[in-house]
Amino acid sequence: MPNRPILLGIVGDSAAGKTTLSRGIAQILGEDNVTIICTDDYHRYDRTQRAELGISALHPDCNYLDIIQQHLNLLRTGQPILKPIYNHSTGKFDPPEYIKPRQFVIIEGLLGYSTRGARDTYDIKVYLAPPETLRAQWKIKRDTRKRGYTEEQVIKQLQGREPDSEQFIRPQRQWSDIVVSFYPPQDHPEQSDLLLNVSLVLRPTIPHPDFTRIINSENTHLSSAIRLELDRDMGKPVDVLEVDGHATKEQVRELERLLCNEVPYLGQFCSLEAEHDVIGKVVGTTGETLQSYPLAMTQLLITYHMLKEARIQQ
Ligand SMILES: Nc1ncnc2c1ncn2[C@@H]1O[C@H](COP(=O)(O)OP(=O)(O)OP(=O)(O)O)[C@@H](O)[C@H]1O
Ligand SMILES: O=C(CO)[C@H](O)[C@H](O)COP(=O)(O)O
Question: What pLDDT sits at residue 283?
């Protein structure tokens, strides 16, 4: 057991896929081992007040960033918090809840990296950056089916929030250790969620697995679907792991073996070999379950980092 909980941050704009990724990782690590906190709960104003004030939920002034920071510090040292609850159905606040952190804590939300104090508390920082067209499709589907909005209302909200997205949300990408971007293949711009590629920007802010052994070898089998490239992100040199939407189970398994060489106990949590594996499964907007190997690879990499950190803390 680690001495203190391991904190994973997942930040990105609305409907960028934060909840989907958080739940997937929690299923892999075992839901009893994971506490998920959504920072929407720290909105300063309810929906009516925001409309009256003309402020969006994306604006730092619309959120209790100081309380987020304080709660992150408490969670990191294993202490409980009394957390507010924002109710997306009513647009109001429910009574707060008492939360004791489990072994792994995932904090997902809009503004998680916007203060230095908050940034310093995470063990691993992920930023989700799907192309804006894909995010808009996901948001329209999710908000019309699950949050009671009309398509016109969602489009209007996306347009109205764009200045805040640009000023406050997207700059947080620079603070992340891993930038995850699912994107549709060029030949299928009308994407199917099943075929999405993923680009994983790996900043040298945390030690990543050594992918070169399998990517640089004469392993043409793997390189047809998985490539490691040198690039720049926000002006800084990074490695980028590109996983093709057509990647096969066998190809992802090879990467899984590589990660398990470095962190053997990874296999106890996530394995494509497992009979009832949950890895790479995503519940679509209409409730159907999709299997995505690029998502499986993303979950494997993040879980690898969390388990490695947990081991370091022992
Ligand atoms: N990797 C993915 N593959 C396919 N579909 C996805 C993926 N991630 C998210 N989606 C779709 O996008 C929708 C929005 O995702 P999600 O609810 O996870 O976003 P979010 O960032 O948590 O949003 P918010 O901050 O507004 O609560 C989901 O309902 C799902 O259908
Ligand atoms: O960007 C969002 C993150 O989920 C929500 O729109 C934000 O939390 C405000 O909620 P609501 O749409 O219920 O007013």
Answer: 73
Residue 295 placed within a domain: yes
Q: Output the residue whose Cα is nearest ligand 1's atom 16.
A: 17
pLDDT at 275 over 70: no
Ligand 1 atom at shortest distance from the alpha carbon of 20 = 18
284 CB less than 6 Å from ligand 1? yes
Q: How far is the CA of 228 from the centre of ligand 1 (A)?
A: 26
3-state helix/strand/coil string of 55-106: CCCCCHHHECHHHHHHHHHHHHCCCCEEEEEEECCCCEEEEEEEECCCCEEE
- Sorted by sequence, the CB contacts under 8 Å of residue 161 that are 6+ apart come out as 14, 56, 58
Q: How many domains does the chain have?
A: 1
ipTM score here? 0.98
Which residues' Cβ are closer than 6 Å to ligand 2?
14, 40, 47, 57, 88, 91, 110
Banded model confidence at residue 188, pLDDT cuts 50, 70, 90: low
What lies within 8 Å, CB to CB, of 279 at 6+ separation is 24, 28, 270, 271, 272, 296, 299, 300
Higher per-residue pLDDT: 117 or 253: 117
User: Is 207 a member of any domain?
Assistant: yes
Task: Round to whole Å and give the CA distance between 117 and 41.
Answer: 19
Which range marks the domain in which residue 264 is found? Answer: 6-312
pLDDT of residue 1: 46
The CA distance from 142 to 302, in Å, is 25
Q: Which ligand is nearest to the CA of 148?
A: 2
pTM score of the predicted model: 0.95
Q: The domain that contains 53 carries what CATH number?
A: 3.40.50.300
| Residue 20, ligand 1, Cβ within 6 A | yes
Residue 2 has pLDDT above 60, yes or no: no
Residue 23 included in any domain: yes
Question: Is residue 1 a part of any domain in this protein?
Answer: no
Q: Are 99 and 112 in contact (CB under 8 A)?
A: no
pLDDT computed for residue 191 by the predictor: 56
Ligand nearest to the CA of 138: 1
